[in-house]
Hints:
Elements: H1 8-22, H2 32-56, E1 65-73, E2 78-84, H3 89-105, H4 113-132, H5 136-145, H6 147-157, H7 162-189, H8 198-203, H9 208-225, H10 234-241, H11 244-269, H12 271-298, H13 302-321, H14 326-357, H15 373-386, H16 393-406, H17 413-442, H18 448-453, H19 461-479, H20 482-501, H21 504-507
Antiparallel strand pairs: 1-2
Helix pairs in contact: 1-2, 1-4, 2-3, 2-4, 3-4, 3-11, 3-14, 4-5, 4-6, 5-7, 6-7, 7-9, 7-10, 9-11, 9-12, 10-13, 11-13, 11-14, 12-13, 12-17, 12-20, 13-14, 13-16, 13-17, 14-15, 14-16, 14-19, 14-20, 15-17, 15-19, 16-19
Amino acid sequence: MNTANFPWLTTIILLPVAASLLIPIIPDKNGKTVRWYSLIVGLVDFAIIVAAFYTQYDFSNPNLQLMESYAWVPQLDLNWSVGADGLSMPLILLTGFITTLAILAAWPVTLKPKLFYFLILAMYGGQIAVFAVQDMLLFFLVWELELIPVYLLLAIWGGKKRQYAATKFILYTAGGSLFILVAALTMAFYGDTVTFDMRSLNLKDYALNLQFLLYGAFLIAYAVKLPIIPLHTWLPDAHGEATAPVHMLLAGILLKMGGYALIRMNAEMLPGAHAYFAPALVILGVVNIIYAALTSFAQRNLKRKIAYSSISHMGFVLIGIASFTDLGMSGAVLQMVSHGLIGASLFFLVGATYDRTHTLMLDEMGGVGKRMRKIFAMFTACSMASLALPGMSGFVAELMVFVGFATSDAYDSTFKVIVIILMAVGVILTPIYLLSMLREIFYGDENEELVAHQKLIDAEPREVFIIACLLVPIIGIGLYPKILTQVYDSKTVQLTERLRDAVPTLAQQEVPAMSMNAPDIGS
């Protein structure tokens, strides 16, 4: 068999979707059969992703690989077109990894298990499709279809305010998606040829004023998903009502869709507008870091505290995208993958803690570390990763963004100093609210009322296995970042050159690396 001609990405996308359609006919009364079936499908699909990565993906090639294109509506040049490069391949791997673990995390689900696992598998294929499709209209369709499983997972299996959270999620995200459709149609019909192919759209010469409008439309849509303040309020509500596996999918994958699309379409397709919008992205990134960190510090609900922490960490992605340096852009991609792993681990542990204490309020906890030693140890390790402890992936990603922005010659010294100081404040706030969270949950005297009414059993082997699987790449990337950065380095270098070419004052200069004496050009 010639594996080079095998439809890898089409198989990876359609396998879980097709498998989900068989779930209704599986004979199963209590959900035990369907959960094993879903786990096997998840493992098989992830194995195919890994096989495609190791056998077909070339680290040194910055262009699209694993390309497949099948005619859909030839009159409009509309095709089932998929491919993967350095921007999408790490996130496809992340999606397969997190979703498979989320299926295992959903083991205790007993309410409508067939529908639950059907939605998880359908979401699996939809999320990979978002990172793989290379047709703008197809991208819009899979972006929209992916929202439906999330809405149902929140509305049916969520907490007391699940209907409110699910409705708010769908209104924000579907409303933002309309801007994608309008911008996609505008790009497709611009010029002499009508096409939705992203590579062809990338070659069109858009007028600068039109680029501004397109960039603004995309930014609104992706600001909702990233999320960027002030379009972020759906996320704490969604996390506040979600179950542990849905948490993992939201924090581990869903937010990364916004960051990926912001790089793929705003930066790569509209570099002229990006040159003007970049300072605004930096400012929005700083606002995300500081505002969300302060808000997280004030939260007494454990889920909402971690949710705002996620928003804060995604601010580094914005700053990296706007840095105009290889190191900054590389740090942005690394931060997305790192946060996906760390966010999924923290929210899973929040769910495990809630299953035992039946409360999310920090005031009602205290001293539970004495009875839940394994959960205490795992929660501490994952919190250390989130606060960017050296030796873990969060530290490497944030350091790359810091140095990448500090060495950027696209901004004057005053602006850079202010931004770096504010970023540092955010970094300082993170350990304060995370360590205080650990203290309130696990340290001190036991809450006698909580101990009397709840059975505080320690972590079971399944839970330890899930966290171990997440900690291995978190520590591995932290100790040897090249494991991941080599996957996308050639792409980020190519992309940074394209962005710098769009800025006349930067076009003739070499991309700054680690030098702290970058010339000041002014923003």
